[in-house]
Specification:
This protein has eleven helices and six strands. By secondary structure, it is α/β, with parallel strands linked by helices.
Length: 254
């Protein structure tokens, strides 16, 4: 059980099947999670793949010639400047469905700043109300999200910054959902989505936004954890892998 692809089914056995959209969560720096994503994408054979890690501009740079060359594609995407883990972990996902069109749902830095200053709705644009960004969250959910953002940043952020951090997360969820809608419309689907577990969660992540704007889609969600630890939120299936040895991320805040 401690091999390269340790997968422990924690919830529903049939969770990986989907007719329209398969959402594949991850802990970003765990290579086993990416191996599993590549396997699921190959099995699902999507017509489109939406990546949280790519902006629309970056996705447009991907050509058939670049697609098979990991180093050249990483260079074309300016990956080393992106802040995401090693591109070698993500490239097999791209090649797992070589004919699938790639869609970027990443949040450009300027849009993130706009969301923090002016709110998610203003940064998202004309469809903000449709995607639920024009309305405040329920008080309990807002408080829970702020607490999670605080914990994610080692409780080092001023309390007054936390609502802005939640706004950015809501904007990211909406951008992922909009990319799925566009990908389905352009390719006919099915669509695979590569994103972090926080955006993959059914209860308030991207799938919840997608259910609001495209309620007829059949969506399945896989989350991924380490050492069988529970994931916040709800998923159709949760897979587990060995943990990655990593430095204490809170050192940067000390």
């Amino acid at each position: 059980m401690m091999g390269r692809v340790l997968a422990v089914l924690l919830l529903f056995a049939g969770g990986a099947s989907a007719q329209d959209v398969l959402v594949l969560g991850e802990i970003h720096d765990n290579p086993v999670h990416h191996d599993r994503q590549a396997e699921e994408v190959a099995r699902f054979a999507p017509e489109a793949i939406v990546f949280e890690m790519l902006t629309e501009d970056q996705a447009a740079r991907v050509t058939p010639a670049l697609r098979q060359d990991s180093a050249a594609l990483a260079n074309a995407l300016d990956w080393d400047e992106s802040g995401w883990p090693d591109f070698a972990m993500y490239h097999p996902i791209i090649t797992a469905a070589p004919g699938a069109e790639l869609f970027g749902a990443g949040l450009p830095r300027a849009a993130a700043r706009a969301a923090m200053e002016d709110g998610a709705a203003a940064a998202f644009g004309a469809e903000a109300e449709e995607y639920g960004l024009a309305s405040p969250l329920p008080d309990a959910q807002q408080a829970e999200r702020e607490a999670l953002q605080g914990a994610a940043h080692c409780d080092a952020l001023p309390a007054e910054m936390l609502p802005a951090m939640v706004a950015v997360q809501r904007l990211r969820d909406a951008m992922l959902a909009r990319a799925v809608v566009r990908a389905k419309a352009r390719t006919g689907g099915p669509v695979a989505v590569i994103t972090g577990n926080g955006h993959a969660r059914r209860d308030w992540g991207m799938p919840a936004v997608l259910a609001r704007v495209a309620p007829g889609l059949d969506v399945r969600v896989i989350g991924q954890t380490e050492d069988g630890k529970p994931l916040p939120g709800t998923f159709d299936t949760v897979l587990s892998a060995p943990p990655v040895t990593r430095e204490d991320s809170c050192d940067a805040f000390r």
